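[Meeting: bench + compute handoff]

Bench side (C.D.) handed over the final construct sequence. Compute side (W.E.) agreed to return the predicted structure before the next meeting so the bench team could plan truncations. Sequence as handed over:
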Amino acid sequence: MNRLRQAVAFLAGFLVGAVVLYVLLLAKGQLVRGPSFVSNPTPPSSTLATPFSPAAPASPEGFPTSPPFSAASAPSSAASAFEALPSFASPAPWAPQAEAPLAVPDVPNPPHALPAPPPDLGDFARLKARNIAIPVQGGDASQLRDDFSEMRGNRVHEAIDILAPRGTPVLAADDGVVQKLFTSVPGGLTVYEFDREGAYCYYYAHLERYADGLKEGMALKKGDVIGYVGTSGNAPPGTPHLHFTIFKLGPEKQWWKGTAVNPFPLWALKKVNNNG
């Protein structure tokens, strides 16, 4: 009997000690109560909803825009357990982001900001591979200004004006063929050059005069002189310049008809590449 009483007393003392230790740990915040000890399993309305709760706001991609847990909303005894959790910004880092527009690097001391390449990157790649020349003798990319999208009265310019002294030689920008020599009210003396493939037309306007011997059907090499800078057509008399653009030709291959392509990014990139 004495041994039985001793065993019962030891067991009772052990249980009392365990309960006292549990209460002390719980009071000091060293022990977080699990679900079986929560008196009210339903979280109060002030706490944040879990990602599966209908009350949780969701992003357009279906992800919650706020974290399921926060140290501020957790019980004080468990706040430290959530301090190490990463914070989630809205939108979530895995949500698709809008792509930035493809940008062109700056050239040394450009007068104006550089434009984006043409929307059709296939055209841009083909023209860049041809190393299109600046069609004015002594032309320098760092001295050019991108006025392709500027307004000229009620129309878009769709060309680059290259200022140069009157009589400066105008050069073929690429190998090709003189498709048309034409005089118009706005463009004055003009040259339409088709590339060898008949995919693009190079347009030169406001010429002072044509180069000697220039004629339609003549084959051109890049750098050949085709005319001279002037102010024919509607160019300001005191501002001699070459009006130049590239047209992507349609299947009909009409010299007066095509989609204008801005050549300025080609020259800007060439300048950057040449400078390393």
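W.E. noted at the follow-up: The first strand starts at residue 151 and ends at 152. C.D. will use this when planning the next construct.
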